[in-house]
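Notes continue from the previous slide.

Worked example: a multi-chain complex. Inputs as given:
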Amino acid sequence: MPKITYIDHEGTARTVEGELGSTVMETAIKNDVPGIEAECGGACACATCHVHVDTAWRETVGEPSPMEEDMLDFGYDVQPDSRLSCQIKVTAELDGLVVRTPERQA
Amino acid sequence: MSEPIKTDVLIIGAGPCGLFAVFELGLLDMKAHVIDILDKIGGQCAELYPEKPIYDIPGLPYVTGQGLCDALLAQIKPFGGTFHLQEMVQTIEKIGDPLFRVKTDRGQVFEVKVVVIAAGGGSFQPKRPPIPGIEAYEGASVYYAVREMEALRDKRVVIAGGGDSALDWTLNLAPIASHLTLIHRRSEFRAAPDSVNKMMKLVGEGKIDMVLGQISALAGEGERIAKAIVKRNDGSNFEIACDALLPFFGLTMKLGPVADWGMEMKDGEYIVVDTAAFESSVPGIFAIGDINWYPGKLKLILSGFHEGALMAQKAYHYVYPGKRLVFQYTTSSTSLQKKLGVA
């Protein structure tokens, strides 16, 4: 299963295995990775699963959809590398993915 | 202050569980008023995911959030339920056995025998942007809603956000403010295209300013804001002098004053209830749906429906003390069918 590393704002890294077809948000919640709230449960209806995608992974992960961009307006410290982790599907090519969680969710 | 509204039951929260509670209470001849902070009925289903499919409502293989709310409204129609929207309960005071005096943020008073809290994740409130120290200015020069436009006449106003609220207020306040700046993170807007076009026209005519960036800090004296420091998307900073800031970053759920109503809480977030009647530690105050906790609790809409049905059985004895309650089915009971208007 693909490995995903979450680095929190203090620099602590946690690497967990993600299930194919689930999302980067669900993988974090399932493994008790802190820093992701997912208030709406993955409906792309809030911005509390916001992550920064590591530079090396941005192209593979891809750009947010227009709807996700709209929700990102509600995020904290939104940058060009920002994504909502509930909208990133875990695929085999994301094995090794690194994301950073922001200091706080909105 | 207006006259107290006297009724049997006050339901706090107009989400699916609150709506279905109107039905279960109605079957047992109890009248309910429903209060909700949103401007529409349906709670999270209507606010967060109106278009999203729900697959685990028994008997409905597929329904959207809005579809479920519409169906519930049709189902409770025989019992009405009086709705009070854009209103939030602030205090609940026990004045009888049981009788509660409930006050809202609009000064409305209810006197009810039973309170049912079906408030889900709490109340939806405007999201506070993550700007250090913004709290100090709130209410005096930072506003999350405009109650009186005249208060902003001839003021230098900064509006932040890119949705309908931000754009609507930009258009409404442009003729009133002495200077208006709209700040948004990117050049695309969520708001209605017509509003965006009107706003761009005002920008083109030099009547307002539009800036791409995010507010990173505020400066001022006491509760009076003096300027906003804006970080442009290229990382550079600049300042905008202003008298008022209106951030419109959507809504978030906050527990609100629920924790102050004297009930036993779990982790400071959930109302502890028994599983026979879903009553809180305060007799006469019930809690159903996502806001309650008991061993084995699942935050599912279907669980909230079940909780509402059991709640109504016990609530009956508070509303009709000493009266016997005969259990009946809607399929066969003529009296229930009369209430539903089908017999």
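Summary box: Residues 22 and 90 of chain A are 6 Å apart (CA to CA). The radius of gyration of chain A is 12 Å.
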